[in-house]
Description:
CATH topology: Protocatechuate 4,5-dioxygenase, Chain B
Largest sheet: 9 strands, mixed
Helix content: 25-40%
Structural class: alpha/beta
Number of strands: 12
Low-confidence stretches: 1-5
CATH architecture: 3-Layer(aba) Sandwich
Strand content: 15-25%
Number of domains: 1
Mean pLDDT: 96
CATH superfamily: LigB-like
CATH class: Alpha Beta
Radius of gyration: 17 Å
Order of helices and strands: EHEHEEEEHEHEHEEHHHEHE
Amino acid sequence: MTAPHSVTDVRPSPIAGTWYPGNPEQLARTVDAYLNRAEVAPVPGRLVGVLAPHAGHRYSGAVAGHAFKLLLGRQVDVIALVGPSHYAYRGSVLTTGHDAYATPLGEVPVARDLLERLRAEIALEAVREDPEHSLEIELPFLQRTLGSFRLIPLAMVDQSLAVAEALGTALGRLLAGQNALLVASSDLSHFYPQGVANELDAVVLGAVEDFDPVGVVQAEEEGRGFACGRGAIAAVMIAARALGATRARVVGYATSGDTTGDYSRVVGYGAAVFYAPA
């Protein structure tokens, strides 16, 4: 289940073999295992977008599986994948300067035509051979569930509400009439004790379930909850609403402590879906 063709200018993976298995057979097995173990009720309507975490698969793969399992059996032409930039670059929103992403499962072509249309509405800074993990970490799940698709990769340096609103609105216009899927990539609170993390994460996930992108961003600004991809979540929610979604549902939550057994300093992971009710 890989992209059907090869292009010359491919972004090399900086994280295969560390953040997830570098061997394609092993990667396919581990991703499939997360998907198979996930127990999640079908979406009662048209699925428009998902939220998934972006830590190493060992830590957050089980939670991510709950969001991505709902993609099994679907066919999608293009995916707008929005996450945070963990690295300082010039510009508010980044995209790739390459024509495809590489993972051990194959190449994912970039939707250059759609990116150019998006660039006409919002400033995008193209980067090459970047070290960012927040986008790539989701690709093996998308490859195993959807097979072939084209990608609009977007990493937010500026996660303010103003930038999220501009990006989300532009994506909503860009993807109208397309067979598209939105994916938000974000972890939740970082390095709090388990009990504190659970309380902080509940605030953000509550705003997600209320379909309140402003609340997601404000939770961090007010210190009531934290999400490293808060702007990405908000942008995807705004775009999803423009594409007809009116409901959200949290489908998975855990912390790194649930994997490591160390609950003294954990990272929170959440999974959610955005949909238009039937």
